[in-house]
């Protein structure tokens, strides 16, 4: 019997993963400055490890460092969001078209959808957003296109960061869950145009919701 190969990661990658999750769950907020010494104490690692982890997250787009300034969690402008979601729309609409043409409905997306339906009454945004990420990643993975998957990974962390604005948005998890249900229903039709239109609508509504949240925060 063959032994399953375990995934091994470096200490730097482990810290980067934990720090990114702390950003995604709202422990560190958009605009918040991160102090290396405090992070080193929090994760009980040398500051050099923190610096290396920060470089990873800057590359992923979920941290920024201005010249001669501190590292901080970025805030999205409307222009940032429009650019990110325009790219997201191109990638996800193409992925949906591929799956509809092949009559594929990813099991992992259906599973994420079912868990979303169970959780939305609990108003657990952290878990809803984690499942949202798994839902869309499952659609990309099901295309079986390494290049499409690789490109999507290059924007997925920034996309997940943008969705964190949902926590303070004027909406409810129930509405978000319904949008994902409609997207799966459109995919089940097997019609590429219907499925792509549903994907475009879902992404457009997501962008509009986050934009309205950003505007509201700017006027507080």
Q: What does it look like?
A:
Strands 1-3-2 form a 3-stranded antiparallel sheet. Helix 1 crosses helix 3. The protein folds into 2 domains: 62 residues, Winged helix-like DNA-binding domain superfamily/Winged helix DNA-binding domain (Arc Repressor Mutant, subunit A), CATH 1.10.10; 141 residues, GntR ligand-binding domain-like (Four Helix Bundle (Hemerythrin (Met), subunit A)), CATH 1.20.120. With 220 residues, it is an all-alpha fold. Helices cover 69% and strands 3% of the residues. The protein contains 9 helices and 3 strands.
Write a concise synopsis of the structure shown:
Keywords: DNA-binding, Transcription, Transcription regulation. With 220 residues, the chain is an all-alpha fold. Helices cover 69% and strands 3% of the residues.
Low-confidence segments: none
| Helix percentage | 55-70%
Enumerate the strands of the largest sheet in spatial order, edge to edge or round the barrel.
1-3-2
Overall number of strands: 3
Run of helices and strands: HEHHEEHHHHHH
Task: Tell me the domain tally.
Answer: 2
As for the CATH topology of the largest domain, it is: Four Helix Bundle (Hemerythrin (Met), subunit A)
Q: What CATH architecture label of the largest domain applies?
A: Up-down Bundle
Derived from helix and strand composition plus strand pairing, the structural class reads mainly alpha
The value of Rg in angstroms is 18 Å
Describe the sheet with the most strands: 3 strands, antiparallel
Number of helix segments?
Answer: 9
Keywords: DNA-binding, Transcription, Transcription regulation
InterPro entries: GntR_C, TF_FadR/GntR_C, Tscrpt_reg_HTH_GntR, WH-like_DNA-bd_sf, WH_DNA-bd_sf
Protein name: FCD domain-containing protein
Domain HTH gntR-type: 9-76
